[in-house]
Amino acid sequence: MLEVAAVDTVMRALADPTRRAVYERIAARDEVTVAELTRAVDVTQGAVSQHLKSLKLAGLVSDRPQGRNVYYRARPEGLAPLVDWMDHYGAFWRERFAGLRTLLKEIDP
């Protein structure tokens, strides 16, 4: 069975459009600082920091402090609960499409 808490946490973290944009910016780069993210998404540094905290708690990003900067990196494995959840329902759709294919062959041989 799927771990519901993990799926809920990832979905909640990615539900916010700004947070999703922050995650996408991080995922597109190897590493990125809070200052770079703040310039890219046009919100305050405090807001970006809150979004990063949610992404980190969901396991979607990791951070690496270096001097006065903190570098963030995407953790693709953090999406695993969401991918597992989608795979679970993918089986449902594969069965439905297989049934539809069979029905269409019966209607128009």
Describe the structure using short key phrases.
single chain, 109 residues, alpha+beta, Arc Repressor Mutant, subunit A, three-stranded antiparallel sheet, 5 helices, 67% helix
Molecular structure report:
With 109 residues, the protein is of the alpha+beta class. It has a single domain (4-107), classed as Arc Repressor Mutant, subunit A (Orthogonal Bundle). Helices cover 67% and strands 13% of the residues. Strands 1-3-2 form a 3-stranded antiparallel beta sheet. Helix 1 runs antiparallel to helix 4 (45-57) and helix 2 crosses helix 4 (45-57). The longest helix has 28 residues, at 80-107. It is elongated, with a radius of gyration of 19 Å. The protein starts with a helix and ends with a helix. The mean pLDDT is 89.
Class computed from helices, strands and strand pairing: alpha+beta
* Low-confidence segments: none
CATH architecture: Orthogonal Bundle
Task: State the CATH superfamily name.
Answer: Winged helix-like DNA-binding domain superfamily/Winged helix DNA-binding domain
How is the main sheet built?
3 strands, antiparallel
Average pLDDT taken over every residue: 89
Give me the number of helical elements.
5
Give the overall form: elongated
Q: Do you know the CATH topology?
A: Arc Repressor Mutant, subunit A
Strand order of the largest sheet: 1-3-2
**Proportion in helices:** 55-70%
Radius of gyration: 19 Å
